[in-house]
User: Which sequence fits this backbone?
C-alpha cells in the first residue's frame, strides 16, 4: 500500500526522492518523509500529510547523493509526524522505509526494549532499524545485519535502509513489491515503476527473498544466505508522460479521457481473421480446462463478473470469487480447473494468496494484469496483459475497461477451446463491433451530459445503480466509483433485487441509475418503473430508443453497438457522472480518504 523509493548515484538525491514520492502518492498519502546521507549523518525529514506538506516544511533541499523516501497508507498507528517514515534506531544511525505488515512486531519490540532500545512511534516498521542496529553491533557487517534482521521478520515487507557513514542502500522484499531501476549514473528502488520513470525504463523486478545492495557505481542481488542471484533486466514500454496529469485537473479525468487509446492498445493484434489471437496462448491452449474460476477484488472483481457472465453464456462452468474469501468459497479444484487472477497491479495481496491456494490444490493459473514483471505475472502459469498503461488515479477507470475487454476476448478463446462449450452465435459480429469500441468511447467523451446531470442530482440522499446480466457488473462498478470519490451513499444491485429490500430506501431523493445494454433490459425496465412509482427519479444510461425512453427523467446516451460492449460505454458515462459530482463537491478526487491504489497487505 505505502510507496517507497530509494536513490543512489552522483549528485543530490533529495529532488529525485521528492518527485518520486509525488509519483507514488496513489499508494498512500497519510504522511511522507525522506532521509538522506552525505557522510555527515543521516538526516530525516518527515511529517503527517501529503508530499506537498513535506516539501513545504523543508528549508532548502537536504544535501546527499543517496537517500530513501516514503509516502504512507496507515496500518499501525494514526497518520502523525511520529508515525511517518523513515524510522530510525535509537541513535539515528540507521534509517528505514517499509511497505507491508510485520506480524511479530509486538514480540520483537518487547525484546528490543528489554535490551535498551527506545521507540518513538506506534508503527510495526520501527522494529526494523532497531533490529539492523542490534545485528550490526553483533556482526560488524551491515549487509549481514540486514540479512539477519529480515530473516527475523514475520509478515510482508519491502524495505530500503541507509546507514550513517556507508555509501550504500540496502533493500529486501517478501510479499510486497519492489523494483530496481537502472540508469547510467544512478540506481533506484521503488514500490512501482512510475517513481523513477522520468529517469530510466530499464528495470529488474525483485522477487521474494531477494536482498539488494546499491552502491554509487554498482549493484548486487543475493538471497538471504548471501548467495548471488541473477535477475533479468526488462524494459518498460510506458511513456513517462503517461504518468503525468498533462492538461487535466486530475489524473482520474485524464485516465477517463485516454480510454480510447488504452482500449486500442488492449485490442491491437488480438483479433485476426475473425478469431481471438493472444500472443502467447495459441488456439487449443485451454483444451484440458473443464471449469474456470475468476478471482479478484474491488474494480477487478467487477471486470471478472463481466467475463464470468460471458463464459457462463458459452456453457463453461464458471465461478467469480472474491479473492479475500477464496480459501473458504472456492469449492473443488483440480488440474482441470483454470483460475484466472484479475489484478491491475499484479501485486494485490488477497488475489496472490488465492492463486497460491489454487496452485497448491493443483489448479492451472492465468494472470490478467497491467504490469509486466509483476508478482502475479511471474507466479501464474500464464499471463495476459491488458496494456492500459500507467494508471495513477486511485479510482480505477481505464484499467476496468481494458480488463473487461481482455476478459471478453479470453472468454471467446475459452469457448472455442473448452470441450462442450458453445461460442457465441454472433461471435463474428461481436468481434467486429469491438474494433469500433475506442471510437464509440470517444463519442461518449465528446457528447456526455454527465456534468449537467451531476449538478442536477447533487443534493440527493442516496444513489442506486441497477442493471441486468452484463449491466449488473457495470451497475456495481458505477456505484463503487461514485462512493469512492464523492463520499455519498451509493449502491449497485442486480435489477431484480431492488424490490427485495432496497426499495424500502427509495424516495424522491434517491435517483435510480439504470444501465441498459440491449440484453436483459426488460427486467431493468420493470424495476425502474417500480422505483419511479415510489417517487424516485430515473436516469437511463443506454442508446437511443431504449425501453425506458418514455419513463426516464434523464438519459446519458451511448452509441448503438453490440450488447457485449454497450455496458462498457455505459460505464464511461458513469465514470464521468462520478467525477463531476465529486468535483462539484470539491472532493480530493485522486486521493480519496482511507484508500490506496494497490492493496498489497491483507
Assistant:
Amino acid at each position: 500500500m505505502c510507496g517507497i523509493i530509494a536513490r543512489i548515484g552522483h549528485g543530490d538525491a533529495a529532488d529525485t526522492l521528492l518527485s518520486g514520492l509525488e509519483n507514488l502518492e496513489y499508494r498512500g498519502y497519510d504522511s511522507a518523509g525522506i532521509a538522506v546521507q552525505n557522510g555527515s549523518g543521516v538526516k530525516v525529514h518527515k511529517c503527517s500529510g501529503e508530499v506537498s506538506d513535506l516539501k513545504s516544511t523543508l528549508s532548502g533541499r537536504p544535501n546527499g547523493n543517496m537517500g530513501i523516501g516514503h509516502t504512507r497508507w496507515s496500518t499501525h498507528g494514526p497518520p502523525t509526524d511520529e508515525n511517518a517514515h523513515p524510522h530510525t534506531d535509537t541513535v539515528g544511525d540507521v534509517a528505514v522505509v517499509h511497505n507491508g505488515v510485520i506480524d511479530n512486531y509486538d514480540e520483537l519490540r518487547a525484546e528490543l526494549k528489554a535490551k535498551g532500545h527506545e521507540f518513538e512511534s506506534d508503527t510495526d516498521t520501527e522494529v526494523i532499524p532497531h533490529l539492523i542496529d542490534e545485528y550490526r553491533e553483533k556482526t560488524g557487517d551491515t549487509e549481514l545485519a540486514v540479512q539477519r534482521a529480515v530473516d527475523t521478520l514475520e509478515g510482508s515487507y519491502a524495505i530500503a535502509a541507509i546507514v550513517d557513514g556507508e555509501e550504500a542502500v540496502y533493500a529486501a522484499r517478501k510479499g510486497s513489491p519492489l523494483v530496481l531501476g537502472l540508469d547510467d549514473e544512478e540506481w533506484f528502488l521503488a514500490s512501482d515503476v512510475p517513481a523513477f520513470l522520468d529517469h530510466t525504463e530499464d528495470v529488474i523486478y525483485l522477487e521474494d527473498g531477494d536482498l539488494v545492495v546499491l552502491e554509487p557505481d554498482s549493484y548486487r542481488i543475493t538471497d538471504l544466505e548471501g548467495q548471488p542471484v541473477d535477475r533479468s533486466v526488462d524494459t518498460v514500454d510506458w511513456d513517462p508522460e503517461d504518468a503525468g496529469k498533462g492538461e487535466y485537473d486530475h489524473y482520474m479525468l485524464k485516465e477517463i479521457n485516454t480510454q480510447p487509446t488504452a482500449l486500442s492498445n488492449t485490442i491491437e493484434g488480438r483479433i485476426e481473421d475473425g478469431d481471438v489471437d493472444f500472443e502467447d496462448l495459441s488456439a487449443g491452449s485451454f483444451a484440458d480446462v473443464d471449469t474456470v474460476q475468476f478471482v479478484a477484488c474491488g474494480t477487478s472483481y467487477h471486470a471478472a463478473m463481466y467475463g464470468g457472465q460471458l463464459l457462463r453464456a458459452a456453457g463453461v462452468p464458471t465461478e467469480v470469487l472474491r479473492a479475500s474469501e477464496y480459501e473458504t468459497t472456492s469449492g473443488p479444484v483440480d488440474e482441470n480447473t483454470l483460475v484466472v487472477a484479475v489484478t491491475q497491479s499484479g501485486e494485490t495481496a488477497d488475489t496472490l494468496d488465492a492463486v497460491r491456494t489454487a496452485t497448491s490444490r493443483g489448479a492451472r493459473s492465468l494472470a490478467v494484469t497491467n504490469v509486466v514483471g509483476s508478482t502475479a505475472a511471474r507466479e501464474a502459469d500464464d499471463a495476459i496483459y491488458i496494456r492500459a498503461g500507467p494508471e495513477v488515479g486511485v479510482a480505477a477507470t481505464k484499467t476496468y475497461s481494458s480488463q473487461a475487454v481482455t476478459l471478453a476476448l479470453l472468454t471467446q478463446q475459452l469457448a472455442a477451446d473448452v470441450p462442450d462449450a458453445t461460442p457465441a452465435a454472433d461471435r463474428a459480429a461481436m468481434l467486429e463491433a469491438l474494433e469500433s469500441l475506442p471510437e464509440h468511447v470517444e463519442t461518449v467523451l465528446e457528447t456526455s451530459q454527465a456534468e449537467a446531470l451531476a449538478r442536477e442530482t447533487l443534493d440527493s440522499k442516496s444513489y442506486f445503480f441497477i442493471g441486468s446480466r452484463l449491466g449488473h457488473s457495470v451497475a456495481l462498478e458505477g456505484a463503487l466509483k461514485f462512493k469512492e470519490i464523492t463520499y455519498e451513499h451509493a449502491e449497485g444491485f442486480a435489477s431484480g433485487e431492488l424490490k427485495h429490500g432496497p426499495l424500502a430506501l427509495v424516495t424522491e431523493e434517491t435517483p435510480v441509475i439504470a444501465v441498459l445494454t440491449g440484453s436483459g433490459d426488460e427486467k431493468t425496465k420493470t424495476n425502474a418503473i417500480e422505483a419511479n412509482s415510489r417517487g424516485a427519479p430515473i436516469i437511463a444510461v443506454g442508446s437511443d430508443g431504449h425501453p425506458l425512453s418514455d419513463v426516464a427523467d434523464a438519459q446519458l446516451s451511448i452509441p448503438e453497438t453490440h450488447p457485449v460492449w454497450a455496458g462498457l460505454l455505459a460505464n464511461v458515462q458513469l465514470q464521468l457522472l462520478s467525477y463531476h459530482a465529486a468535483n462539484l463537491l470539491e472532493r480530493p478526487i485522486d486521493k480519496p480518504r482511507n484508500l490506496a491504489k494497490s492493496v498489497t497487505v491483507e
In short: The first helix runs from residue 14 to 23.
